[in-house]
Amino acid sequence: MTRNDKHDPHGHGPADPQRRQLLATAAILGVAPWLLSACTAPSASTANTAAPAQPAGTGSATTTGILPTSQRRKLGALEVSSIGLGCQWVPAAVEGSVSDRYGSTIDRKTAINLIRTAVDSGVTLFDTAEAYGPYLSEEVVGEALQGVRDQVVIETKYGFSFDPKVAAARGGRDSRPEHIKQVVEGMLKRLRTDRIDLLYQHRVDPQVPIEDVAGAIKDLIAEGKVLNYGLSEPGIQTIRRAHAEHPLAAIQNEYSMLWRGPEAEVLPVCEELGIGFVPWSPMGMGFLSGTITAETRFVPDGDREFRVAVPRFAPDNLRANMALVEVVKTWAQRKNATPAQLALAWLLAQKPWIVPIPGTTKIAHLKENLGAAAITFSGEELRELNATVAAVPIQGDRLPPGVMQLSGVEAPPKR
Ligand SMILES: NC(=O)c1ccc[n+]([C@@H]2O[C@H](COP(=O)([O-])OP(=O)(O)OC[C@H]3O[C@@H](n4cnc5c(N)ncnc54)[C@H](OP(=O)(O)O)[C@@H]3O)[C@@H](O)[C@H]2O)c1
């Protein structure tokens, strides 16, 4: 939940009201803003910012709100839409509703409708985890994808310990082979499927050699219950060791304009080994969409507002980090896009094997986000944008210390 007196509910950056209206309408209709602007005669007040009929650098635009199959990407051997959908929900305070971890609550039917709309819009990659809820998100995903299961790729994650009787965390990580095999049975039931297309270890277990984890996965693959596997936030050597046991399809780490850590080591290793990369929090937990201002304050609400504990969003850091939002807004305007679209397009432009999974609770945002696939950058534009982003120092850690220490962990050696 956010408290923000100056909050702009659309948050699409450009101050000009007609242009903002244009972007919002484009988002709701799921069309590229330049298409609408091409149909709108520029008024005196919009003459400086009116979009050209087709902006330079815009490639094969998706004008229908449908992701074109021609833009599919590969995660290892898996082919998926260029943008996926993150499905991370926890129980809401209201019975029958779900909350994301960023202060939004929707009823379960709306969540199901959101997923089905994504399928109708060409999204084929759906990300969830046993831990989201726990169990709740997998159940919603399973219900929503019934009937279209064969058209989509489901990715989920194991690796923590839960008590299934009370759907609560026992605390601690658990990637023992027998545990993985046991929890996969529950996942298949909740997801209403006979196979998991891409199964990730959510966090490396410091007690279990990654070779043993890969061994369990190989058994599950032999049984047809799992088709591909990946790791989330692993250490570099753990990636190499796992891949040597059995080829990894994807690494899933946080990556966005707000957190560019994977560029140092993880992305080069993925490139070297032919592993796909799925950035989580591609929108910087909403920050890059332009809806958060220096005055925004996050209000504690249990699991339902994670950002309250995130150092980079503490008031002083937030104020300093707004410099990045200014970059995003400036470039969004330059590319006739919304800030959210610009943030996703930047990720897509980094490597052809990167597939972001933005989370949202709103169909309008979903459609807006898919519009990012229509935005391309020339080599010169990308160099300039990358250099500009790199020049903005980000203050404050990306995660609370207790969560941060689970990242980059190396699995113990196999003896
Ligand atoms: N592997 C891991 O450890 C891990 C960790 C975290 C997340 N994940 C996965 O990654 C997915 C995405 O990450 P995330 O949800 O943490 O962060 P995110 O996608 O960076 O940000 C989600 C936030 O952005 C807002 N948003 C999305 N589109 C918007 C738009 N067009 N305009 C304005 N606001 C917009 C959403 O609000 P609205 O609801 O208002 O749109 C929400 O508050 C999750 O759903 C989950 O599946 C994985």
UniProtKB/TrEMBL annotation:
InterPro entries: Aldo-Keto_reductase, NAD(P)_OxRdtase_dom_sf, NADP_OxRdtase_dom, TAT_signal. The keyword Oxidoreductase applies. It holds the Pfam family Aldo_ket_red. Residues 46-66 are annotated as: Disordered. Residues 104-387 form the NADP-dependent oxidoreductase domain. One of its GO terms (cellular component) is cytoplasm. Residues 46-65 have a biased composition (Low complexity). GO terms for molecular function: oxidoreductase activity. Keywords: Oxidoreductase. PANTHER family: AFLATOXIN B1 ALDEHYDE REDUCTASE (PTHR43625), ALDO-KETO REDUCTASE (PTHR43625:SF77). This is Aldo/keto reductase protein.
